[in-house]
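User: Hello! My lab partner asked me to get a predicted holo structure for this protein. The small molecule is pyridoxal-5'-phosphate, SMILES included with the sequence. Please write out the structure tokens.
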Amino acid sequence: MKQDQPRPTPRAGIMDIEAYVPGKSTAPAGVTKVYKLSSNENPLGPSPKAIEAAREVAARLDVYPDGSARRLREAIAEVHGLNPANIICSNGSDEILGLLAQTYLAPGDEAVFTEHAFMVYKIYIQAAGAKPVAVKETDERADIDAILAAITPATRIVFLANPNNPTGTYVPFQEVRRLHAALPKDVLLVLDAAYAEYVRRNDYEAGIELAGSSENVVMTRTFSKLGLGGARVGWMYGPAHIVDAINRVRGPFNVNATAIEAGIAAIRDRAHIERSVAHNEKWLAWLSAELTGLGLRVTPSVGNFLLIHFPEGKKHSAAAADDYLSARGYILRRVTGYGFPNALRMSIGTEEANRGVVDALKTFLKS
Ligand SMILES: Cc1ncc(COP(=O)(O)O)c(C=O)c1O
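Assistant: Hello! Below are the structure tokens for the protein in complex with pyridoxal-5'-phosphate.
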């Protein structure tokens, strides 16, 4: 078709968006065994109960799901001690982050996040026509004072990933409370607690209490890091007026029947969640120590992944390490787009994968 013919054009700003690049899932040709360590999935896989629930629902896939995902909201509410009316379920927590931007941002508005924050915030802010404002971090951690200094009369949302991806660092909850106390009441604080289950720190909270007692705070969560990444189940907890607004904007059947049934079974399978968290605790500590022992700097992580920094110079760069590991079937995540051109993010894997990466890096660094 000729270029000069009229054709539909996206709204101003859409073509400025840099599309999200997911973690790789394939290894170079010839590699037989692949260890996918690029998307922070659960190395123990889905809950066996969720697998069974998904199998059972297969025979009823002709029927529309419950548009309000009531039973899933009730199951989440039961486990976390919440009112199901204050929960919205979503197609992964990505969806709810997008809905929040779509509902609360307009052209001319600003939304704040930190420089190495999870990348979808910027995408959704731009997609809503608003201005993304990235603020500096301190020691690869969100800096509450820097966030507060970036607030202007145009600010409508602050997105805080706690813990953050890809750094794995977290903000103690008293700092989150300080942020909230200093924010104007009409600015929405989004506490993205995608990795909350994995955090083992006394001064950490996901934000349930704050979201339950404030008019301008929501907490978002996901099932993806506990074994249901492929099913796409996320949720938000927040005040009734925000739930009401989002319910007007979201798709009427945004959570599919398989996701609902697998989600209900997964959240009730506490034993599987505990096993996953215990596995993570053990291997996160092991990997941090081993990698540090190899002379690599590792950002202190409380999530189910690690950010590994490589030495200056081409020979042992992150790009070279990525090629070396991929050729042996270990697929890690390049994080150049997150402002870390010389680092790789590694999901905590199975024992075999974790030991394999350390052994491979040992040889790589000697080469
Ligand atoms: C900080 C953070 N928030 C949200 C998500 C979205 O997860 P999902 O859409 O799978 O629920 C991720 C996934 O990587 C994440 O790292």
